[in-house]
Specification:
There is one protein chain. The protein is mostly beta strands. The chain is about 10% helix and about 40% strand. It contains 4 helices and 58 strands. The strands form 15 sheets. Strands 5-4-3-2-9 form a 5-stranded antiparallel beta sheet, with no helix packed on it. A hairpin with a 5-residue loop joins strand 25 and strand 26. Helix 1 (about 35-45) packs across helix 3. The chain is globular and about 70 Å long. It starts with a strand and ends with a strand.
């Protein structure tokens, strides 16, 4: 049976800390309102994690005998309140799983902590046994059995003791504390790059914040407080490092061109002073060595090392794709970095700082997947990084073996509900800093009569919204879980069409309304393929055989063809517009479409609009009748044909004058619909997603995500 003693059990999971004795729950150190029956349910589930707690057991715990109440309704309300506080859902549970016709189960990873306090009434969960008086003499045989049993018990105790001690020696997060409260975006980045890191001079944290196209270098005390802009006499694209002497920052200057990837490397003195360029280096990422004498920088698919003044540059590695977050080991012998793949994922690699010994840190098939953005602890014993799986990013650490190629003892540090990015170990070895996010949005449409964005479809968190030809049905992708749904245009008759781990993007109704085409990833690490599915549900059908990556689909007006281009991030040499004949499943290329993506078929079938696969992103018309090509406008993203085919709507999120526009076809006259704060929109696969409602009004997803810096107290052996 379970007994109460004079100690307190505190259970931690994700950002939450539950004091079972005091009846309190805190999130990132802040107390949450959860009491009564909802807390009793949580307590019952935490006492038996990973086990099913039946409805009958919960009823008996919540209501004493002879209580007259609607048990099912009361239990449902208690569970719903609990999920609200945890930010959980029945459809995609992180913590509380519904077991049909049985009960509920806590599925999160828990970290129990037992505390002793002399002045309080406290308890722990312990196991006791009932014993009866011994009234008979123990013979020799009985003594032998007792001795044998004692030996077995000792061995079992030793094994479990070893396991407990080993677990207690693993790195673990103890508590969370919020550092910033500025409500600014901190993890946004262009498709072809990784988020900018946080760096520290010991007393201050420095990071990029704000919407894409208007990001600013910010600073805040490591102990928290007001966030302020760092005033610099140049446009900063990315911060990459702080010097070991804590007197300088290393940044990349955009030079007024936000879409240029390779940029000049600049040194900014602290707290102020005239910046100076590091030689003639052009890079998309870089960092100083621990002693400050060398710089590692990435350009294209190459990694270089140079002296700190930019001279004596030499290549140390040629890579399959671009490298990001290069980090020196404290002893200066190893450079570890993230290699970005064409689907936006990444993997950790390392090389000798002298060149050679290039290798992946983990085997391709090994966990965790999509490793990114790591930093060494000051003593070099641990390397902390983030790993993204679906819409969730969590922190991991690997204990170093002391030599190149000898990293081992991989440990997961965090477990939701907030995603954690850009880990930065503190100089004292007792804290980590990270950016915590909760992704969500609000679907809105632009009402030209009042000049405002208004909630659409009740303001659901969704993108990729597309309507059937008759305007009666709508399909969309929920954010952040990327599940495909369809419903009536008024939101009724809602039906889920796909299940995790399928990751869905940009669905499109067929002209006859009998199918929905979408770009999907069947599982992590799988290629992005075009799928077809019935609006009534069923198993998605892969449209094209093979493992080649594809792009977002666009139907021909007769429904016989699908046009598509590649995703941004894939190799430019492979970019072109492809045409799939659905009757024969034959694939052909659109003539003269090399170097284009984001194909959109016009409603009358005469044109295919596409964007150039470069920084200019020129919106171009392919005339299928005259076989001519016409350029309309540059710096366009997410083109959408008007229902009458007379205009193409698009968004310009990165220009000096961001906004929603439309261009008339075929004369190219441009009209601005509204000024647009790029911070109102959420990332999709190429630029900022926009769509059109049945009445022709533009749709966008207003970004209501939370992104704040947190300090994480952690314990390492």
């Amino acid at each position: 049976m379970r007994a109460i003693s004079n100690r307190t059990q505190v259970v931690r999971f994700g950002l939450f800390e539950v004091d079972l004795a005091a009846g309190e729950i805190r999130k990132a150190g802040m107390r949450q309102k959860l009491a009564g029956q909802s807390f009793l349910v949580l307590k019952a589930l935490l006492e038996r994690p990973q086990e099913v707690v039946t409805r009958d057991e919960l009823k008996a715990r919540l209501w004493p005998d002879n209580t007259f109440v609607d048990y099912e309704l009361g239990l449902k309300k208690a569970i719903n309140r609990l999920r609200d506080v945890l930010g959980d859902s029945a459809e995609n549970p992180r913590f509380i799983e519904t077991v049909p016709r049985r009960g509920y189960r806590f599925i999160g990873l828990t970290r129990p902590e037992f505390r002793h306090h002399n002045s309080h009434s406290e308890y722990e969960v312990t196991q006791t046994e009932r014993t009866s008086p011994q009234q008979e003499r123990v013979g020799g045989h009985s003594r032998f059995l007792a001795a044998t049993a004692g030996t077995i018990l000792f061995a079992v105790t030793a094994v479990f003791g070893y396991i407990y001690l080993r677990h207690s020696r693993l790195p673990q997060i103890l508590r969370y504390a919020q550092v910033t409260r500025d409500s600014e975006a901190k993890t946004s980045s262009y498709v072809s790059e990784l988020l900018s890191p946080m760096v520290s001079d010991g007393s201050q944290l420095y990071f990029m914040a704000g919407p894409l196209g208007n990001k600013r270098l910010m600073q805040v005390s490591t102990s928290g407080g007001e966030t302020s802009s760092f005033i610099a006499p140049l446009e900063i694209r990315r911060i990459v490092a702080a010097s070991a002497n804590r007197h300088e920052l290393l940044v990349l200057s955009s030079g007024g061109d936000a879409l240029r990837l390779e940029s000049p490397l600049i040194v900014l003195p602290l707290p102020a002073g005239a910046p100076h360029r590091v030689g003639d280096i052009l890079a998309h990422d870089a960092s100083w060595s621990t002693d400050g004498t060398r710089i590692v920088f990435a350009n294209g698919h190459e990694l270089y090392v140079a002296k700190s003044d930019g001279t004596e540059s030499r290549r140390i590695a040629s890579l399959p794709n671009s490298a990001w977050w290069p980090r020196w080991s404290p002893d200066g012998q190893v450079v570890r970095f993230t290699v970005l793949n064409e689907l936006g994922g990444g993997s950790l690699w390392e090389a000798s700082s002298e060149g050679g010994h290039l290798r992946r840190l983990f085997a391709e098939e090994a966990e965790p997947l999509f490793q990114c953005c790591g930093n060494w602890t000051a003593d070099g014993k641990y390397f902390v990084f983030a790993s993204t799986l679906g819409s969730e990013s969590q922190l991991w650490t690997v204990r170093e073996g002391g030599n190149l190629g000898h990293a081992h003892e991989l440990t997961r540090l965090s477990n939701g509900p907030m995603s954690l990015f850009a880990p930065l170990p503190g100089t004292d070895g007792k804290r980590l800093f990270a950016i915590a996010t909760q992704t969500r949005g609000q679907l809105v449409r632009y009402d030209a009569r009042v000049g405002q964005f208004l909630p659409f479809l009740s303001g659901i968190s969704a993108e990729g919204v597309d309507f059937s030809a008759d305007g009666q049905w709508v399909t969309y992708v929920s954010v952040p879980d990327r599940i495909l749904w369809r419903s009536k245009a008024d939101g009724s008759e809602r039906r889920q069409l796909t299940l995790p781990p399928m990751d869905v993007r940009l669905p499109r109704w067929s002209p006859d309304g009998n199918h929905i085409a979408f770009l999907g990833q069947a599982a992590v690490g799988k290629p992005l393929k075009i799928y077809l599915i019935s609006p009534e549900g069923g198993t998605p059908e892969q449209a094209i055989a093979g493992d080649a990556n594809e792009g977002e689909p666009s139907w021909s007006p007769d429904g016989h063809w699908i046009a598509f281009g590649p995703l941004v991030g894939m190799e430019r040499a492979r970019a072109h517009v492809a045409l799939l004949d659905l009757r024969t499943r034959e694939l052909r290329s659109l003539p003269e479409s090399q170097g284009f993506f984001s194909a959109r078929w016009s409603p009358d079938g005469r044109y295919i609009a596409a964007l150039t696969f470069d920084e200019s992103q020129i919106l171009t018309l392919f005339d299928l009748e005259t076989h001519k090509r016409m350029e309309l406008i540059d710096r366009a993203a997410y083109p959408n044909w008007s229902h009458d085919g007379r205009h193409i709507y698009f968004v310009r999120p990165y220009s000096d004058d961001p906004g929603l526009f439309r261009v008339r076809v075929p004369d190219g006259k441009v009209e601005k619909i509204t000024t647009l704060n790029p911070g109102l929109l959420s990332w999709a696969i190429a630029g900022k997603w926009t769509g059109l409602a049945p009445d022709g009004s533009p749709l966008v997803l207003r970004d209501t995500s939370v992104e704040e810096v947190y300090a994480l107290d952690w314990q390492v052996p």
